[in-house]
Amino acid sequence: MKAVQLRITGLVQGVGYRAWFADEARARGLVGWVRNRADGSVEACIAGDESVLEQMIEAARSGPSHARIDHIETVETDAKGLDGLRILPTL
Fold first, then answer.
1. Residue 4: which H helix or E strand, with range?
2. Is residue 64 part of a domain?
3. Which residues neighbour 41 within 8 Å (Cβ) at sequence distance 6 or greater?
4. What are the pLDDT digits (tens) for 13-44?
5. Share of the chain above pLDDT 70, in %
6. Could you tell me the CATH number of the domain that includes residue 54?
7. Which domain holds residue 66?
């Protein structure tokens, strides 16, 4: 299992991005979390099969209909402790 942490910037708050991301990740069988950041970005940590992660990252580049994604920063991380898919409070 591979894990990545994402920082998504653009118009990603107030447009349903977190809920959309969580639903898309769950549908793909991924585990992890997603949350808004005080700086206006969305942060996520997801884990699963590498090819499925790549599909999710590609989907995240489009997001829900009212979102505008400017950039996605991706960093490999540790999958330890990730289970389910949770929406966390803003950090």
1. strand 2-11
2. yes
3. 7, 8, 9, 12
4. 999 999 999 999 999 999 999 999 999 999 99
5. 100
6. 3.30.70.100
7. 2-81
pTM for this predicted structure: 0.95
> Using an 8 Å Cβ cutoff, are 8 and 31 in contact?
no
Q: Which of 7, 26, 28, 36 is catalytic?
A: 36
Q: In the numeric block, which tokens belong to residue 29?
A: 């069988």
Residue 65 lies in a domain: yes
| Catalytic residue from among 7, 18, 26, 61 | 18
Can you tell me the distance from the alpha carbon of 78 to that of 82, in angstroms, rounded to the nearest whole number? 9
Domain total in the chain: 1
36 is catalytic: yes
